[in-house]
Amino acid sequence: MKRAVARWQTWWTRLFVAAVLAAALLPVPRPWGLVVAAVLFALSLVRPPATTREPVEVDPPLRGRWVVVNGPGTAVPSHGVKAYGQAYAVDVLQPAPDAPTSIGWGLRPRRPETYPSFGRPVHAVAGGTVVRARDSQRDHGARDTWPLLVWMMTAEGFLRDLAGVGRILGNHVVVRHDDGTVAVYAHLRRGSVGVRDGEVVRAGEVLAEVGNTGNTSEPHLHVQLMDRERPTAAAGVPMRWRGVGADGERDPRWATGRRRPSALPDFPENGQVLELGEGTRKAASRGRRPSAGAPSRT
Predict the structure, then answer these.
(1) From residue 270, how far is each of 41, 55, 86, 210 by CA, in Å?
(2) Which of 171, 174, 169 is nearest to 130 (CA)?
(3) Where are the stretches annotated Disordered (predicted)?
């Protein structure tokens, strides 16, 4: 029942907003308007039951040096919420030694092309069938100052919630694996997705490029495993990456303190710098056709 209710999360939120507006603007009996709004708000907070699956071992989705941000190795849910199947989701971006050490107050966003993560290849963590592949949303400027961050976390975030999960994920690819798990790769670069709905992909195959679309403050990859294809009806599934190297280096900008009791054991902590190798799947990405209409790397 919880999963069936959660499936319509976006619509409960939309109806809640409509009910609040109706109660404020129309001659609706106030008690009834408030009751309806409260019920709709409660329904919008329902989440699917948590998974009981053990961590699934998969290949890393990137190659080279990357930093863990908002990962389950520090706390679960890693992004603070369980909505959209992201209880065990992880964000990763490339180290940037010249990045500002403090957040400014300007109103001009930094262009996504200036970040080292932008345009890097994204690889399939396991073989499977593409359920959904979308890459028409534009790459927006970074939300890298206090005014822009506040805008992203309030008005912009709320509008994306109303628009639906596709606007939160931005350009994305969803792949269903043979073991029943489903991988989501989000915030991808516009025009970079090189796979289509229904296509079979192999582990390690290049799917797209890192971008800055959807609900994101700067170019990075958001990746997660779920137990269903539809994020609103899915519970997050824990994962572990093969072939990960780490020498103890940390990026202090992304470190968020010690592991919480809820953290996923054996997964890198926030701020940890990783060397993601190509492993045994390197050959899978060779011979891949180029992305149709994909722009050249900046």
Answers:
(1) 32, 18, 16, 19
(2) 174
(3) 242-298
- Can you tell me the distance from the alpha carbon of 154 to that of 147, in angstroms, rounded to the nearest whole number? 11
Single-letter residue type at 69: V
**Structure tokens of 14?**
């939309």
| β-pair type (239-241, 56-58) | parallel
CA atoms of 254 and 74, how far apart (whole Å) = 11
DSSP state, 166? H
Distance CA 66, CA 62 (A): 8
Helix, coil or strand: residue 33: helix
Q: Which of 292, 271, 254, 17 is nearest to 159 (CA)?
A: 17
| Residue 55 Cα distances to 34, 83, 130, 239, 281, angstroms | 43, 19, 22, 5, 20
The span from the first CA to the last CA of the chain, in angstroms, equals 48
CA–CA separation, 186 vs 183, rounded Å? 10
Q: What is the mean pLDDT of each run of 10 residues along the chain (298 residues)?
A: 95 96 86 91 96 95 96 96 96 83 86 96 98 97 94 95 97 97 98 98 98 97 97 97 89 92 94 80 39 32
Looking at residue 28, its pLDDT comes to 79
Q: Which residues of 11-50 are buried (b: 16+ CB within 10 A; e: fewer)?
A: ebbbbbbebbeebeeeeeeeeebeebbeebbebbebbbee
> DSSP per residue over 202-223, as a string?
-TT-EEEEB---SS-SSS-EEE
Domains annotated on the chain, with CATH: 2-44 (no CATH), 56-285 (2.70.70.10)
Q: Is the peptide bond before 77 cis (omega within 30 degrees of 0)?
A: yes
Residue located via tokens 């990962």: 71
